[in-house]
Prior knowledge:
Blueprint: H1 2-8, H2 31-42, E1 47-56, E2 60-70, E3 73-81, E4 88-95, E5 98-102, E6 116-119, H3 145-148, E7 159-166, E8 169-178, H4 180-188, H5 193-207, E9 215-222, E10 227-237, E11 243-257, E12 271-273, H6 274-277
Parallel strand pairs: 6-12
Antiparallel strand pairs: 1-2, 1-11, 2-3, 3-4, 4-5, 5-6, 7-8, 8-9, 9-10, 10-11
Amino acid sequence: MGAVxxxxxxxxxxxxxxxxxxxxxxxxxTPAAAVAEAARHSEGTSSLRYRVTGTLPEKGRVxxxxxxxxxxxxxxxxxxxxxxxxxxxLEIRFVxxxxxxxxxxxxxEKLDGKGWFRAEPSAWGRGSWDNNSYGVLPNQxxxxxxxxSTLLTGSKDLRTAGTETVEGTGxxxxxxxxxxxxxxxxxxxxxxxxTRRHRIDSLDQFIALHIDGALTMxxxxxxxxxxxxxxxxxxxxxxxxxxxxxxxxxxxxxLDVDRPVxxxxxxxxxxADIAALTDGTP
Length: 282
């Protein structure tokens, strides 16, 4: 399916909003305990609105804002990339197990005059946070960011980096590095099988990055022990182990949690079916 989308898409392919300031009591909590508590609070989130900025391997500068929900399983994202120095805009929607993609990054000559293409069934949801966009989204944006924020639980050198205000909320800033082994430890650390499965699905894309050394991760946690922002950065190797000169630097800011999310399908008259455009070629 990813090869099919490459025909149409140019170039291939938790968190509450608390108030107040970081309290003095936070200084009495060890960084490891604080990060573990923030990870625990990320579990069970039913909906999320968030913003992403940074650079991604092979994509360059990326900016995105998205809303997602598990009940029902829906997602809407507007994303801009600067791949190859050229700005490209994509909008992705998942509604009723169907994926819709529109925007200036589409190869318009393939769309028969339409503004969107659709593909069904998509793998978004399946009763969990799992997401497979068939190569339309960069891998690092496919997983649940609330789960990805738990990466720092795999660090062995956690430390407090100060206090900062994020989106009007006082937070404590934690920092550490995470090796490939630490990523696996964070992925497998969940106490119950369902949460562990979600972490495996959401963190494997980072493990597959072939990290050159370790990832550096920052986490901003508010007084309610909930993550407000996280940042992940590091150098990436190619699959054969050579330095690829690619840099991952991704910041995710959580804007809303557990609020209703509504995503509508594009107008049917402005939508082309990907199977028809490619004569059903997989």
